[in-house]
TrEMBL record:
Belongs to the class-V pyridoxal-phosphate-dependent aminotransferase family. SerC subfamily. It comes from Propioniciclava coleopterorum. It comes from the Bacteria. This is phosphoserine transaminase. Its EC number is 2.6.1.52. Pfam families: Aminotran_5. It is an enzyme of class 2 (transferase).
Length: 369
């Protein structure tokens, strides 16, 4: 049956997607205003290069990047960075922690790479976290936040690993929201369509001096396509540009989001804002007779919340009803196959809208269960 949720219950903004995630209206207005004459200009010239420089310096400030760490960027998104890593960061073998779809995909990409040994894989079922085990490996890889399941992992070097091994962290749904000590990583890479409130198609990475050294060495020794050549990307990044034409609107929106985060208090502010949203969501689910958080403590993500429902609740029908009322993109990750909702709570999402979302879910359940 068709249900019309009362207007006074609805969130002011009904976007709760996990990527592309909500873009702040103020950033879109800036794009339509200041960006109108900027779009369609050369990415090799000062106006665009100035924005790339603003992003690179803004990221370094946001993360208090350690001495010697550099921000690189290129086209293709985080998925492309997995292939880049197989050419330029993994020398012989990686050890990977797999606890969801995206950590699995990186492990699979490494396993398909013909010049690398089969990766060591530490795997758990979705809903918790697995860090890679110490192994005969020169790189250790996992995700800071598994977007498919809403599980957040600690970030630190693997204690018994070779001191020369690199630590590679997929931060696609964590960057811009979760605090991290970059000194515990060598490549902290991400795309801008989640917490950075922009669009997809680009990758960014903080690279340590050790990662930069290995990149230079491996790309000199191996044949590497230009589009996957991390050294080439780094050389271009140092000139505040990309190898080939980037998506200008994506760069503009990301720069606006970084400025907004810095003005509001940086990563501590972002973490508090996401914590307010997720604290309400998990508290609501813990107390609800028909709902429960999917991810076990202490791994519940503050930016991606996955909520399981009792079998008497049809979560797909619930999501469809919410969508019909302007509350969108709360469906679960497609391959999990669970009776759940997945809710993005990135910094651009107002915590008050998360409170309104749960009130709307309550209203629908009262009338359908």
């Amino acid at each position: 049956m068709s249900l019309n949720i009362p207007a006074e219950l609805l969130p002011r903004d009904g976007r709760f997607g996990c990527g592309p995630a909500k873009v702040r209206p103020e950033a879109l207005q800036a794009l339509a205003g200041r960006g109108a004459s900027w779009m369609g200009t050369s990415h090799r010239k000062a106006p665009v290069k100035d924005v790339v420089g603003r992003i690179r310096s803004g990221l370094a400030t946001l993360y208090d990047a350690p001495d010697g760490y550099e921000v690189a960027l290129g086209n293709g998104g985080s998925t492309q960075f997995w292939d880049i890593a197989s050419f330029a960061l993994v020398e012989r073998r990686a050890s990977v922690g797999v606890f969801g779809e995206f950590t699995h995909k990186f492990a699979a990409a490494l396993a398909r790479t013909p010049w690398l040994d089969e990766p060591a894989v530490t795997r758990v079922e979705p809903g918790t976290v697995a860090l890679p085990a110490p192994a005969d490996a020169d790189a250790y890889a996992w995700a800071h936040n598994e977007t498919s399941t809403g599980a957040a992992a600690p970030v630190h070097r693997i204690g018994e690993a070779d001191p020369g091994a690199l630590t590679l962290i997929d931060a696609t749904s964590a960057a811009g929201a979760l605090p991290v000590d970059l000194a515990g990583t060598d490549a902290y890479y991400f795309a801008p369509q989640k917490a950075f409130s922009s669009d997809g198609g680009l990758w960014f990475a903080f690279l340590s001096p050790a990662a930069i050294e290995r990149t230079g060495r491996l790309t000199a020794e191996r044949w590497v396509p230009d589009s996957l050549n991390l050294q080439l990307a780094l050389d271009n990044s140092r000139s505040d540009q990309t190898l080939n034409t980037p998506a200008l609107a994506t760069l503009f929106l990301m720069a606006e989001q970084i400025d907004w985060l810095l003005a509001a208090g940086g990563l501590p502010h972002a973490a508090r804002r996401c914590g307010a949203s997720s604290g309400h969501l998990y508290g609501w689910a813990d107390a609800h007779p028909l709902a429960s958080p999917f991810v076990a403590q202490p791994y519940r993500s503050p930016v991606v919340g996955t909520i399981d429902f009792d079998p008497q609740v049809d979560a797909a029908a619930l999501a469809a009803t919410l969508r019909a009322n302007g509350i969108v993109d709360v469906e679960p990750y497609r391959s999990l196959g669970r009776n759940q909702l997945r809710i993005g709570m990135f910094p651009a999402v107002d915590p008050a809208d998360v409170e309104a979302l749960t009130a709307c879910i309550d209203w629908v359940l009262e009338r359908t269960v």
